[in-house]
Each structure stands twice: as C-alpha cells, then as structure tokens.
Amino acid sequence: MADHGGGGCCPPMDLFRSEPMHLVQVIIPIESARLTVSYLGDIGLIQFKDLNAEKSPFQRTYASQIKRCAELARKLRFFKDQMSKADVKSSAKSEAKPEFNFDELEIKLGELEAELTEVNANNEKLQRGYNELVEYKLVLQKAGEFFKAAQSRAEAQQTEASSQQAAEDSLETPLLKDQDSTADQGKQVKLGFITGLVPQGRSMAFERILFRATRGNVFLRQSSVDEAVIDPNSGEKVEKNVFVVFFSGERAKSKILKICEAFGANRYPFAEDLGKQAQMILEVSGKLSELKTTIDAGLSHRANLLETIGKQYEQWSELVRKEKSIYHTLNMLSIDVTKKCLVAEGWSPIFATQQIQDALQLATVDSKSQVGAIFQVLHTKELPPTYFRTNKFTESFQTIVDAYGVAKYQEANPGVYTVVTFPFLFAVMFGDWGHGICILLATLFLIFREKKYSSQKLGDIMEMTFGGRYVILLMALFSIYTGLIYNEFFSVPFELFSPSAYACRDAACSEATTIGLIKARDTYPFGVDPAWHGSRSELPFLNSLKMKMSILIGVAQMNLGIILSFFNALYFRNPVNVWFQFIPQMIFLNGLFGYLSLLIIWCTGSQADLYHVMIYMFLSPTDDLGENQLFPNQKTVQLVLLLLSLIAVPWMLLPKPFILKAQHNRIHQGQSYTPLEGTEESLQVEAGHDSHDHEEFEFSEVFVHQLIHTIEFVLGAVSNTASYLRLWALSLAHSELSTVFYEKVLLLAWGYNNWIILIVGIIVFIFATVGVLLVMETLSAFLHALRLHWVEFQNKFYEGDGYKFAPFSFALLVDEDE
C-alpha cells in the first residue's frame, strides 16, 4: 500500500504496530454525495462498509448510474480495440483535470462511437466492393483468354472447312469436343455458361461434384490466379482459381448455382462479345481507381478520428473508472428515510481524521449545499482492519509477511525485523562476495530504471523481480558481507585485509595443506583465513563453524519471536500469556538450546564433545561427565536446567485453561436476567444482544487447544532448532558447487593451453554460474529463508488472522482489462 504520509499532515511511519483505526459515520446530504465521495477517494484513507449487503446490485439506489458507466466503459473498450487494430497508441495520462463532466463525456463518446461505426461500415462496404471488382477484373481477363483461344481455334476450323455457315457457329463449336461439327443446325443446342472464382483448395472437389451432379453434362475450364486475392465475404487472403462452366438446360444451371454457393465460389457476369469484354475491363479498372481513392480518404479520416480519440483516451478511461467506483461506493451507503441524506460507515486511521473533515467541508462548499456533512466516531467491539503505511523500500518486505497472513490489528509486526533478518539469513546460505556483486549490479540496473519499468506492463517473473528489487538489493549487500567473512570470491580466497596468519615451516610445505604450517603473524582480522581454503582440514573446520553459527542464529531468532510474544501480551494487557506462555517458553527453549548456545560460544576449542554433553544431559543427567566436564558445577547446572525445562511443560499446559474459565465466569456472572416490566424497549434489545454475544465457554476446546499449542512448542523447539541447520547445508552446497565450477571447468580449460578450449570453458563457466548459482541457488536460498521466517520465527508470536485495510482510493483503481 502506498505511503500516504506526505507533507506534515501525518505522524511518522511506524511499522511495529499497525495504525490506530476508528469506525466513523458520515451523514452526507444527497446533493453533495457524489462530490463528497469523490474527494474522499482522492484522499484514499477510508474503507467504507457495505450497509446494503442484503440488497442485490439491481435494487440499489445508483444502479442506473452504474449501467451508464458500464456502457461508457464498453464504448471505451471498443475504441481501444479499434486503436490496437489500427496500431494507434493512446497518449500518456495527463495530470490536468478533464475539461468536461460525466454527462458531456457520455454525449461525446456516443457521437464518436456513432461516427466511428459509420466510418467502419462505409469502409467495410467500399472494401468489399473493391475486392469484388478485383475478382471481377480477374474473371474478365482469365475467361476472356478462354474465349479468345476458342475463337482462334474456330477461325482455324473455318479456314479448313471453307464454309461460311460454319464460321457463324464457330464460337461455341470447338468448346464441345464430343459434338459433331457437321450436325444439323436444328439439332444444335445453345449453351449457357457461368464464370467466377473458387478457392484453390476446393477446386478439385468442386470439379468432381459438378461432374457427378450433372452426370458429366458440363464442360469446366479453370485457371489459377498468380497472387492471392482478398475474399469479399471473409476479408482474408485466399488463393483462387478462375472457372468457366458450360452447361445445357435450366436444371443443370440450378444445380451448378447451388454447388457454387456450397463451395463459396463467387460468381460474376461475363459477355461473349470480345469488344464488350474489353470495354468492361476498362470500366472495372476505372471503378477500381475511384474506389481506391475513396477508400484511402476513408482510412485517412478514420486514422485522424482514432488519433483524436487516442489523445484523450486515458483521461476518459480514468474518468469513467472514477465515476463507476464513486457510484459503487454510493451504493454501499444507506439512504435516510427522508431520502434527503446518505449514511456512510467505514474504517479510517485516526491520523486521517482532519483530512477527512477538510474534504467533507470542501465538498459542501463546491457542491453549494446548504447543509454540511456530519462526521462522528462510533464505538464498536468489531476488530478494525490492519493498515501499515509503507514506502517503496519497506513495501516488498511487508508483502513477504502478508503472504503468510495479515497481522491482527495492532499485534507486533514481523516485517520490521524481516527487513534485516530475511536478507541476512539468505546471505548466510549464499555467502560469496563475487556472486553478491553480480546480483547487486543486476538490482542496481532495475533501481536506476524503476521510473521506466513502473509505468510499463511487465511479464509475471519480471514484475515479481522488479517488485522485490529492494529485497534483492539487501540480499546482495548481505551476501557480499558474508562472502567476505567466508573469504570466497567465486570460491577463490583473497588476502584482502592482511596476509595469512600462517606460514610454511620450511620450503617443503609448498602444497596447500595445514601440515607444516605454523602461525607466523597475528590472527587474520576479518573472516576466514585464506590458508584454510584448499587445506585438508578445510571441510571439517568450515562444517563446524557453519553448523555452530546456524544453531546460534536459530536460537537467537526464536528467542526474538518469544520476546515479541511478551510485548504482544503487554500491549493487549494479557498477563495470563506473560506468566503461562512467555516465561515457560523462555525457560524451556533456553534451558536446553540456550545452554547449548552458551557452550558453543564459551567452550570452542575444548576437547569436549558437545553432542555427548547434550545427549547425556537427557539420558544420564546424574553420571560423571569425565572429559566432557567444561566448568565447575556443570552437572548441577545441567540438572537444574533440565528440571526447569521439565517443569515448564505442565506450566504451559495446565494453568491457562483453568484461569481463562475462571475469568469468563467472573466477567459474565449474574448477566443472565429477565428484564422487569416497564423496562424500555432499547434496554431489552441491548440485553438480547448481550445474551447472544456471550457464548458458552467450552473448557474442553480451550484445553485441547492449549494441549496442541504446548506439544507444538515442545516438539517445535527441537525441530525448529534442527531446521536452522539448513543454513549450514545450503552454505556448504553453494560453496562446493562454486568450487566445482571453478576448478573442473575454468581451471581445467586453462590447463590445455588452447584458446578455443579456453573460450569454451569460460562460456560454460559463465552459463553454469549464472544458471545454477545466480538463479537456481538464489531461488533456493530465498525459499529456505522464507520458510525460516514463516515457520520457525513467526509461529512464536504471530497470529496473522487480521484483514487488510482496503480504502476507497482512486490511486488503487486498476483498469478492468488488466
């Protein structure tokens, strides 16, 4: 949620607890209702309650206005569709307020839609006519070629026969090969013909169906068109054949017409006379030229119209969305019996009270209403929504917490600590300052271009990455820090802060091994000494270091979670949770794993086995410790801690349900009574409400819930501590993978002394590093850090059963299409 705390109107941002909220009631005169809601939408700090939930959308007061808005939205979608087809882009949103109101916009959009629809219809009609003329011209040309060929053959026959009579009938005679040229004139039949175009893909089937339907009593000639033509009916480019069908008789004609219609063949008239054919071709060419000019003028007019629409499209779209949201909000308000005012109820932050009152006063003045709106605070037991004012830096961290569950109203917010602990735990698993620098550069690129990307529509993965850019920034910075501690740069150690503290005893210890090394200088000042890398004891040393560090971090974070539960109990004035939840939990966790953490810190370097110390603390607490003795009176201390941990379990389990039952009985004692005669009706109603509100206390349910909670904590203390060992495991995996890619790919390719192999090796190393270590390992470490926060940390104190503050705000409106 955007930070609304600009200027000096709001208190400083506090993420630890959600903003204090109150339920407000606003009584608005009906003449200023629309403007009032509009001004409240500009502020965006009030969440209206639906006071007409029992009514259907069509029964509400402003249903007709919403229909008008929906109709305008439909027109705008039509414009957008037309602009996308014409490749016209809408102008960027203007900050200036629109120059016309809603009624003027409705008239304007209606006129534009009618004009654009008419232009489209005319253009479609002209384009159809143009495509028909193009096809007609092709028919005239191709069919004319058929008849010219027939005429030339007829003239040849006339020369051979030297008969004047044959010359008069020679136009059709050669076309019917099976007709006897010397037949009687009385027996000769006048043939009809049909010309047109048929799609090439259907031409063979067209010919077969014609032959079968007429039993072979037709003569068909086809010729393919060189280029695809636009079909007048479908508007798509289709490859076609020009055909001429000769037939005899009306029955054959009707069959041919039906077949043409079935196959989508477009028919065109044709004259036998060659002179008429030439004249018709000239006429068609002239009409095509005229139509082309007309169509171009229509398209130019349409383009200008769409450009005009595009300039103001975003402004109009925003105005319609605002109006629709205003009337949706007005429909949530209840109308007074006098039908002269609307009553609104909603949640708002306490700090926004003055802003809301100023907006109400301004709306009264601007609407020239004689009566102002009335603002008052209502007292309720209903749980308010949760509202954290975040900025672009803290928003992504708060989103991580909200994905688990929205905080209950004013409970401690883990988002404050997540800002630091989340990237730190990620970095513990990802520690390599070379990889950290790569991620840092990629993140800085996103941050420097955030203005550009924030206004663009990005893909799902890119949008997620861009939204969490500041999380990734801190992850990269912490990775550089832990990488310097581990002393790993793409798995290669460097003597950054001083030379190694170890040196060779003699010239024979040139290999990277701890045998023969002696401490020659002061301890390496920061991080792991580079001499450890490549040594025989590197893995045992780093395993021990990272495993112990994981336990320390885990116990510290779990303690933080339990301490936050203490602050929650103090804030909500719940001493039962302090005495019977916080204290026994602290004793149990620290009596076992806090003690282990102290042993790790104080006894590092001793010969004692910490595994044995912890195991025998449970199995044989009274036995002698022997070589596992680390300090005086250790056995006594361990016995006391073990006893306290055992006492803490029933301490958590038993007292709380009985205390809650006693509190319930004390609070509701004597509240079941029968109202006396003459009691006011309002009091009776109130008593009736109270009797419904105070449900019976189910002791068994409370006890079972407490039992589950206790078992979960006791088992979770062990499993959650073990779960933090994933920090060690993933850190080791990342380090080893990095070493493998460096030694087995880059160094191996370098050893061949061949430029081609070296280049291939570098390319493979880059792709392996980016694909596996910078993408897959980043995602893996991110998910594990997420789990540690959601499960191991937040389950100690975070209920997360609240609901998010969703104010009526124009800034949060999203385009319906998106």
UniProtKB/TrEMBL annotation:
Essential component of the vacuolar proton pump (V-ATPase), a multimeric enzyme that catalyzes the translocation of protons across the membranes. Required for assembly and activity of the V-ATPase. Residues 157-168 have a biased composition (Low complexity). GO terms for cellular component: vacuolar proton-transporting V-type ATPase, V0 domain. The chain crosses the membrane at residues 424-448, 469-486, 549-571, 592-616, 636-654, 755-776. This is V-type proton ATPase subunit a. Residues 102-129 form a coiled coil. One of its GO terms (molecular function) is ATPase binding. Pfam families: V_ATPase_I. It comes from Ambrosia artemisiifolia (Common ragweed).
